[in-house]
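Schema walk-through. Below, the input block comes first and the output block second. Nothing else is stored per chain. Lengths vary across the set, and this one has 261 residues.
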Amino acid sequence: MERTPRLIALDIDGTLVPTGSDEVSPAVLDAVGRAVASGARVVLSTGRSVLGTLGVAERLGVGGTLLCSNGAVWWDVRAGAAVRRSVFDAAAALAVLREALPGAVFASEVVGVGSLALGRWAEGDLSGDVREVGVGEFTAEPTSRLVARWAGREPGELAARMSGIRLPGATWTSDHVEAWLTVVPEGVSKGAELERLRRELGVDRADTAAIGDGHNDVAMLRWAGCGGAMGQAPEGVRAAADVVTGTLAEDGVAAALGRWF
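--- output ---
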C-alpha cells in the first residue's frame, strides 16, 4: 500500500500491550502519537469490554469511537457513552457452551459498569464491577459480549472442543494465548463494524490499515487496505495479512506505523 492511511484500526492485547496489561511501550506511544498528529483517525478495535479499553485509549491519546467487544459496542470517548450496541440472547448460546466446556466460568458484559459472572472468576480477569449471579439473572437480559475462561486448559484444547460448534444467534472466537472464548452477536466482527465506520466517515477503502495478532483480527486484516499481522501471530492470522511486522516485544506496531508516519 503506497498511500498513507487515513483510518487505522489497532487491536489491543498482543498488539499494543501484553495480554491483560494497559502499559504501552514508549516506542508504540510515540508511533501512534505521530499518526494521530498527522490527522489519521486511529480506532482501537478490540475484544475487550469498554472498561478494559478506556485505560489504553487514554494512554495513547485516542479519542473518537472505540470498537469494543469485537465491534458489538461502539463507545464515543467524548460523550462517554455507547452510541451503537448489538446484542443477542445469551440463554441458548450458554446452554451449548456449558455442555461443550464443562467447568468453565462465564461472564456477560454490563456496558460501562462491569460484568455478571456465572462462576467464580480470578481477580483481575474482568474489568469493573463483577457480580456473581445464577443462570436466571445471567440470561435475563440480552448481552453484547459473553466470555468464557476454561481454567486449567490450553488454548488449543478449547479451540478443538469448539471446532464445528455453532451458537444460536451468536458467533465465537478463541484466544491463542489463553483458554478464553469471546461470543458476540451473529454478523458482528471487527471487519464488519470497521466497514460500517469507514462508510460513515467517508474514508476510501484504499486509505485504511489495521494491525492485529489474534483470530478475532482476521476479518479486520482482510478488510483493511493494508492488513498487518504481528510477528508472534498464529499462522492463520499471518496468512490473512498483507504484511507481517515485528513481535509485540519488538514494538511491531511502531515498525508498521513507521512506514507512513
